[in-house]
Amino acid sequence: MGDIIIGKHTLESLTSGMYSDPYVVFREYIQNATDSIDAAYKVRILKHGIDRITISLNPFERQIVIEDNGLGVESENAEKTLVSIGNSQKSSENDRGFRGIGRLSALSYCSKLTFETSYPGENVGTRITFNAKKLSDLLMDNNDVDVSVIDVLQKVYSVDTFPACETDHYFRVILNGVDESSGLNKYNDVFDYLSQNVPVPYSPEFSWGKEIVMRLKSEGYLERKYNILLSFGGKTIPVFKPYKDEFLVDKGKNITDKIKDISIIKIQQTSGELSAIGWLAQTNYLGSIYDKTVKGIRIRKGNILIGDSQTLNVVFKDARFNGWSVGEIFAVDARLVPNARRDNFEKNPAFFALHEQLTTVAAGIAKDIRAASLKRNAELANAVKHSETIIKGADAALANGLAANKRGTITQKLVGAQEQLLASSPKNEFDEYYQEIAFEELDMLIGNIQGATSYKAINLSASLSRTEKKILEIVFDAIISVDTNQSDKYIEAILSKFDSKMDWSQNAT
C-alpha cells in the first residue's frame, strides 16, 4: 500500500461542511463544557450546584467567549487533546461530546479561535490559538498538492503557556473576528437557540416544571441540568427552557392554549429496561402552536436537543400535528447514539425500535387531538359519526355479498354522508384533515360498492379486478341456474383457479 494522505480539505468537511447552522458552535462547546463539569464533580473538585457555563457576546468587538468551571485539561495533554481530530478519549455512553471533531466547529465563523485552560494542582495554564483566516487561505490555495491535514494544522496553530493558580480549573473558548453575517452575536437569536438546545432547567415561571421533574424522578429518572448564563451589554441572564403554562395558538385571533396536566411516557426495550422516558402536555388542542420555541415534541440525549422541533414529525401519520403538541422525550438507552451532526440518531436496531414505539405515542396524540376537535365542532362530529355508521353498514353489506338492487341504495347513503361532511364547517386544520379523511374513505367505498357482486367470495378477493368480478358474477349466476346442487363446488373450483393464476403471475414478476 502506497503513502496515504488525508487531504487538507478534510478540515473544511469537519467545519463548515459538517455544520450548516452557525449556532451549532454553541451546542458543541457547551456539551464539551458539561462533560468537563461532570468530570470535576467526579473527582470532587466542584460541588454540585455551583457549576457555571457563561457565554459572553461582544458584538462591537466581534468577539464571543464561552467559559466553564469544569475540570479543564492537563498542560501535558493539552496540545494533543485540543488539536487532534476525531481522537477523543470520551465514550458515547457517558459523555455528550465524544467524537473529538466539534471543538473546531467555530473555525468557519471567526478569524481567530483560542482555547485557554487551567487544570487543578498545576501552576501553569495552556493557550492554543488557531489562525482561522490563514486556514481559510490555505484551503483555498489550489496550487498545493498532496497537502495533508497535519501539514495545514501545523501552519495555523500555536501553543503557549501562562502562569496559573493551582486552585484554578476552567476551559475558555474565545472567538475573535466573528463573522457578522453568521448572527452568532445576535442576543435574541442566541438566547432562543440556547433555551431550546442546551441542558438547562425549566423556567421558575413554568409552574409545571417542578411537577415534571418530580414525576420523572418518581420513575427513577433525573435528567442533568447546568447553570448556563448569557452575558450581553453588561447584563448576565440565566438560560432556562422556554416552556410556559400558556402559549399562543392563533396570533390573528389572539387565541391562547394552556397546559391542563402532564403525562409521563415510558418507552421500554424488549428486555423491559428503559429505552426513553418523557412528558407530554395535556392541552385543549386548539390548533397548531404559534410559538416556535415550545411547539413540537422534542427528543434529547444527555438533555441536549437532537435535531430540532420537527425531528419527530416523521412519527406522526400527518407531520403537521406534531406542531399541536408540547413535550420532551429523553433517550436513555446507551445504544441510542447521536450521529455526527447530532440531527438524529445513528440508524441501528435501538433507533428503529424507538421510532416504532414513538409512532404509537403519536397515534395516541392524534386521537386525543381528534376527540378534542370534534368535541368543539358538534356539526362536524355529527357528520363524522354519521359517515362512520354508513361505512360500517356498507362494509357489512360488501362482506355478505351485495345484490344489484341494493347497490344503488347504499351508494345514495354514502353520497349523502359525503354531502353532510362537506356541509359541516371545519374550524381548524385538524377539522379539515379529518373531514378530508372521512370523505376519501366514503369515496373509496362508493367505488367498491359499484364494483361489488352478490357473491361474498368474489367481493373479498383482493386479486380480482372489477371487470373480472363482474364476469365471474355472470358465470356463477349461470352455474346456479343450471345446477343448484353442484354450484358451490364449481364456484369454489373456479375461484381456486383464479387465485393460483394470480399467485403464478405475481411470482413471475
In whole angstroms, how far apart are the ends? Answer: 46 Å
- The quaternary organization reads as single chain
Structural class comes to alpha+beta
User: H/E series, N to C?
Assistant: HHEEHEEHHEEHHEEEEEEEEEHHHHHHH
Estimate the strand proportion. 15-25%
Mean pLDDT: 83
Give unreliable regions as ranges.
4-8, 95-100, 502-509
Radius of gyration, in angstroms, nearest whole number: 32 Å
| Strands, total number | 15
For the biggest sheet, the summary is: 8 strands, mixed
Strand order of the largest sheet: 5-4-3-6-2-1-7-8
Helix content: 40-55%
- Categorize the overall geometry: elongated
Q: Helical stretch count? A: 14
Describe the structure.
This protein is α+β, with helices and mostly antiparallel strands and 509 residues long. It is 41% helix and 18% strand. The protein has 14 helices and 15 strands. Helix 9 packs parallel to helix 11. The relative contact order is 0.08. The C terminus is likely disordered.
Helices and strands in order:
Blueprint: H1 9-14, H2 24-42, E1 53-58, E2 63-68, H3 75-83, E3 112-118, E4 124-131, H4 132-140, H5 149-156, E5 157-163, E6 170-176, H6 187-197, H7 208-218, E7 228-232, E8 235-238, E9 246-250, E10 255-258, E11 261-268, E12 274-282, E13 296-301, E14 304-305, E15 326-331, H8 349-376, H9 378-400, H10 404-423, H11 429-450, H12 456-459, H13 466-482, H14 487-508
Parallel strand pairs: 1-7, 13-15
Antiparallel strand pairs: 1-2, 2-6, 3-4, 3-6, 4-5, 7-8, 9-10, 11-12, 12-15, 13-14
Notable characteristics:
single chain, alpha+beta, 8-stranded mixed beta sheet, 5-stranded mixed beta sheet, 14 helices, elongated
